[in-house]
Structures are given as C-alpha cells and as structure tokens.
Specification:
Elements (H helix, E strand, L loop, with lengths): L9 H17 L1 H7 L4 H10 L17 H14 L1 H11 L1 H5 L4 H8 L7 E14 L2 E11 L7 E9 L5 E10 L4 E3 L13 E11 L3 E3 H5 L18 H30 L1 E2 L5 E2 L4 H33 L6 H27 L11 H13 L6 H12 L10
Parallel strand pairs: 1-3
Antiparallel strand pairs: 1-2, 2-6, 3-4, 4-7, 5-6, 8-9
Length: 396
C-alpha cells in the first residue's frame, strides 16, 4: 500500500529527516515561544514518514527496525529537543495501536494513515465496566504533542460494579471526546505542548482498549493481523527507550555545540589562551563523549538482543528485559552527566538565549523527571533478580 509523499524505506526516512534538521534547529526559539512544535515542523515530519515508521504496513506504515526509528529520533533531538521529544512519543504510538483490535486500528487509520495519537499513561482516570466496554472519565497530565493529534491513549484503573479495581488499561479516545487544557508553562521542553487532557464520562468500547497485563506478556489482540516481529517486543522496553533516546540526542547536540564553541573561544582569565589548547578541556570532552556513546550503544544493543530472541521465536528472558531498564535509566543519567559537564565548561557564552547548550541543559533536566527515568526502581528490580529475589512486575 503506497500513499503520496510516503517514504517507503527506513533509510529513506532517515535521509529525509536529516535534510530537515537545520530547519528544526532554526525554529527552536519559535517552539519555545509558541509552547508547541511549529506546525511546519510537524508537517515536514509527516511528509518524511517519521510518524509511520512503526506503523503496520496494512495502514501505510514501514514496520521499521526500532534501531532505525530511534536513530532518527536521536538526530532530531540533537537539532531541537522539543521536536525530538514529540517525534519520539507521538511516533511510537502506532506500535501500540497495532496491538489493539483491528476495529480500533481501522477507526484511527482507515480514512487517513497520517492520523496521529498522543498519550498520558499514568492511571489517573477511572473506568467503570459496562456492557460492551467502559465508562471513562478523569484528567490526565503531560500529553506531549496533543495539539497535533486526533486521538489520545489514556491510562486508567478499571473498576467493577462493586467498586473494586480489576485491571489497568489504556483507552483509545477520539478528539471529539476530550478537551485539551493549556497548562504547559515550564522552563524545559517548553515546545512539547505537554498539556492536560480532560474526559467527561464517555463510553469506550472494549475493542478500543488494551490491558497492561497483556502488554506485559508481549501480547495484544492486534497481533492476529499485524504479525511482524516488531509487535512482539515488550511494551516497557520500547516506551522507556522512547523517553531516553531524545535525552541522548540532546547530549549529542550539546557536545557538538560545545566542541565548536571551544575551538574559537579565548579564555580571558588565562591571558588569551585558546580553550582548545587547555588539556583539561580535551579530557572533559573525551569523558563526555564516552558517556554519550556508552549510553547509546547499550540502549541499542539491548534492543537488538530482544529483537533477535523474537526473530528466533524465543521468549525474551526476564534478565534481558530488566537489563533494558537498567541501561535505559542509566543511559539517561549518563546523558545528563555529559550535558552538565559540557555546560559547566563552556563559559559565559553558553548562557546566551538562542544557544543550543543552555536549552539542552534545561530540556534534558526536564526530560529527566519523566517517570520512565526513575532510576532506583529499575535498578532495584535488576539487582533483586541477580540476588534471586521475587520481582515486583513494575515497569519492565
């Protein structure tokens, strides 16, 4: 199935995205001012095929290798963090929609394969079981890129008629059934438009839901029609990588700007010495570069290992799934540490509005507080498994 303007290979999308990077960087200040990624950037990403990389081929998608997908995200974030962030969190949702019943997939993409979906997964909503589905209501925060989307995935606890919690699900809701409330006044990732979603009580059919217990088993009813191995990966492996990858991209962009600044910087406090002649400056960028490379290498190597198990028809070992989470949270920390070191060593010019470095410092620390980056929980699960203790399912 081919749609006008679609890139038909992962390499084609990567090439198209790379051509767009200067424009994303030029519009970074505009994104902060608007508190949204500019519509022009979203349209360019759509035409490049970015939002369809993980989408089923049945609906015009590429079913791309996740490593190719995350490579594109990292490079976008290295140009502008907010654009990279919404590219990541919006473009990963087709993977999850591929797991719901085909009736829901048809509702989202049947008329237009370019329809986009935002999310807010924290179970702050309430869903009550009723005939054929659920009555959903509540308020959700941090729905990045929601202004550019026509549907939303929302987390909610499911209650039975007796008022007992019986499940935790995500609910797929169309735009006419929710309100976006503009509350996104923040110091970092300002351009992501991560606003609140409010749903007055509305009916959501069973087919438009997905149990998190099922995704924990790497299962969803959509696998009956979407058979690619891509859709057999663990939900939390893919979605937590979706959060860390842009932060590693921010570190890569900060590294590039820092090196460029230091090549021409003259240090006034050292009698006109060029910063690039300072041996300590050379050591700092070596350390920062190693942290960024290590974060990225471990993240992608783990995904490749998971895909290899799936392709052999094997169940992904729990230890590998927990290693994904271990290296994901530490990958975020490595990227943050690199950005901090580079920022501190860059001198006063890094403080100027419009520089990538100061924005990356703010944006990366904003991304750091996402729930997926909670290091203690992920590291404890890995350590407990090594010691032979029972594992709380948590986010693995």
């Amino acid at each position: 199935m081919f749609y006008y303007g679609a890139m038909t290979t992962s390499q084609g999308v990567l090439d198209a995205v790379r051509d767009l990077l200067p424009g994303f960087r030029e519009r970074a200040d505009e994104a902060e001012r608007l508190r949204q990624v500019p519509e022009q950037s979203v349209k360019e990403l759509e035409e490049a095929g970015m939002f369809r990389m993980l989408q089923p081929q049945r609906y015009g998608g590429l079913e791309a290798d996740p490593v190719d997908f995350f490579t594109a995200i990292k490079e976008i974030a290295a140009a502008d963090a907010s654009t990279g962030w919404i590219s990541s969190v919006v473009a990963v949702h087709p993977w999850q929609i591929a797991l719901v019943a085909d009736e829901a997939q048809q509702a989202v993409w049947g008329a237009d394969p370019n329809v986009r979906v935002s999310s807010s997964y924290a179970p702050t909503g309430k869903a009550v079981q009723t005939e054929g589905g659920y009555l959903l209501s509540g308020k959700w925060s941090f729905s990045s890129g929601s202004a550019h989307c026509a549907w939303v995935l929302l987390g909610g606890l499911v209650f039975n008629a007796e008022g007992n919690v019986v499940d935790f699900k995500t609910f797929l809701v169309p735009r006419e059934k929710y309100e976006i409330v503009d509350v996104w006044n923040v110091v970092g990732l300002r351009g992501t438009g991560s606003n609140d979603i409010v749903v007055a009580e509305t009916f959501v059919p069973e087919e438009f839901t997905l149990s998190m217990s099922e995704t924990g088993r790497c299962y969803g009813p959509g696998q009956a029609v979407n058979t690619n191995n891509l859709y057999k990966l663990p939900f939390h492996s893919l979605f937590t990588t979706t959060i860390t990858t842009p932060i590693i991209g921010m570190a890569s962009g900060a590294y590039e700007e820092h090196v460029e600044m230091q090549r021409s910087r003259v240090r006034a406090s050292y009698i006109g010495e060029k910063a690039s002649s300072d041996p300590f400056a050379a050591v700092r960028i070596a350390r920062a570069g190693s942290e960024i490379d290590a974060a990225w290498a471990l993240l992608m190597n783990n995904l490749r290992e998971e895909m290899a198990h799936v392709e052999r028809g094997e169940k992904i070992p729990l230890k590998l799934r927990l290693r994904v989470r271990r290296d994901q949270v530490l990958g975020t920390q490595r990227a943050i540490d690199a950005i901090d070191a580079l920022f501190e060593a860059s001198g006063g010019r890094a403080l100027a509005e419009g520089t990538y470095l100061q924005r990356a410092w703010r944006d990366a620390h904003a991304g750091r507080v996402h729930a997926a980056n909670d290091p203690e929980r992920a590291l404890k699960m890995y350590g407990d498994l090594e010691f032979g203790h029972k594992i709380d399912p948590g986010m693995y």
